[in-house]
Each structure stands twice: as structure tokens, then as C-alpha cells.
Amino acid sequence: MSRVRARFSVLVVTYNSREDVSALLTDVERLAPQAGVVLVDNASQDRTVEHVVSRFPRVVTIANKRNLGYASAINQGLRRCTTEFVFLFNPDIRLPDPDFFGLLLGAARSSSRVAAVGPLQYQPRADGLHLDLTWSYWSPAGLRLYFGRRFGRAPSACLNVPFLNAGCLLLRRSALFEIGLLNERYFLYGEEPDLCLKLRRLGYECRLEPRTWVVHRRESSLSTWTRPARLGVRLKGLLNIADALLRGYAGLLWAFVRKERSTA
Asked: For residue 235, with 0-12 CB atoms within 10 Å meaning exposed, 13-18 middle and 19 or more buried, which class applies?
């Protein structure tokens, strides 16, 4: 079984993403040729795996025979990586900033308590790129950054935020194994709040690095699904998010109560 041995790793989960992942892996080759890359495919039917194997032979490819879901696929990939830092990408991410990898790694290495770092994410629309309102801005500091960036008065300092978007994320691998990796009960959606709240419960930080950015063509792979299937997975996703928030905040409260009892 091959393993990834590099200064840092890149992990991509695909589902019918041949064209998207080809563009992403080309960006990775251009900006970080030294990175080890793991791709986990959830039973694509568009020959994603065959294309990656022929076009990007250095990529370690895991081809699942059925769609195991996003969190399960990420966990598969994390077990194959050996580096402390792993960049998690959706295949519909583009990397226009040449300083992307260095800035996120710098933020992660600033403290051993930083477990996750994310960039700004822009979504392409007909009239240009727009800053995407993701989980990362669900805090007073995050909202100030979001609206400040929209109106040209944004702070540039790295922010400690409660949540990050899993579409593009730098992760500290040891912290993820400490929390037991991602929760595989969530097939799609819900993994972000679950992950971030578990990290916070153990005293880790999630940071948003506003000096770098990516383009995120959100939910590109879902466009290959039928409309009823997309509706079903989104409704299930809302339930997953609600479940993750309830469980996560309950865990934070219980950890606080236990800490108070131990110091009483």
C-alpha cells in the first residue's frame, strides 16, 4: 500500500468530477510540486479515476466501489497521509494566488493549538467574483471581515473563528486523530460544524487567513445529480447540520461544566 511522504499533503474527494479535479490538480502541480497528493473517489461514473491515473501518475488514488459519503472518504485519505499538515480541497476549487500554500502553512505553524486554517472563498457569477458567505463568517469578527471586504475596508490579520468551510481547508492531522477524525454519520453536510466544535472542545483554534483566497465553484458535482436527488441530499444536509450543532454545543457545555467542577 503506497503512502504519501512529503512536507505536506493534498487530499481531494471526488464524485463525477473529472474536469474539475483535472484543473485543480494542475493548479497544485504548478504551486506545490513537492506536495504528496491523495485522491479518494466515491464511485464516479465519468471515468474520473482513469483520467487522474493517466494524467497525474504521482497521485495516490483510492477508488471506492460505492459512494461512501464525504466524511468517510476524507477519513480514508487522512489515514493514507503521513504529513502533519493536510490541505483538504473540493475538486471545484481553483488556486489563483501563488502565495496560497505558504500563507496557510504560516498561519497553522504560528501555534501548536491551531488545528484548521481556511482562506477567503470567492464564487464566480455572471458579473464577476463575489466573496462567498460561508461558515467562516459566523462570528462578529468574521462578519466585520466579510462586510469590510465587500466595501473595501477589510482587516488583514488572521482571525480566530468558530467555523470554517471544508471545501478548502488546511488541517493539522494529529488534532484530527485526537478527536477521532470526521463523523461518518454525516454523508454530506454537517461535517464542518461537527469538526470545528470538536476541535474547540479540546482547546484547538480554527483560523481564517484573509491574505489569501480561492475560487470555489460550489456544489459542482451535485449538478450531475437529478433534481429530486439534489433536493433530498440538501434536506438531509440541513438535518445533519442541526444535529452537528446540537451535539457540538452540548459537548462544549459539558466540557465547561466538567472543568468548573474539577476546579471547584
From this structure: exposed
CA 95 – CA 97 distance, rounded (Å): 6
Measured distance CA(262)–CA(256) in Å, rounded: 10
Whether the CB-CB separation of 83 and 9 falls below 8 Å is answered with yes
Beta bridge partners of 113: none
In this structure, are residues 212 and 103 in contact, taking their beta carbons and an 8 Å threshold?
yes
User: Are the beta carbons of 75 and 163 closer than 8 angstroms?
Assistant: no
Element (H, E) at 19: helix 18-31
Least confident residue range of 9-18, 182-191, 229-238: 229-238
Residues 135-188: tens digit of each pLDDT: 777 788 888 888 887 777 666 788 899 889 888 999 999 999 999 999 888 888
pLDDT band, residue 2 (cuts 50/70/90): very low
Structural domain spans, the chain: 9-263
Based on C-alpha coordinates, what's the Rg of the chain?
A: 18
As a whole number, the mean pLDDT across the chain is 87
CA distance linking residue 89 with residue 70, whole number of Å = 12
Tell me whether residue 160 is exposed, middle or buried, using C-beta atoms within 10 angstroms of its C-beta: 0 to 12, 13 to 18, 19 or more.
Answer: middle
Q: Which CATH class is domain 9-263?
A: alpha beta
- Give, for 72, the enclosing helix (H) or strand (E): helix 70-80
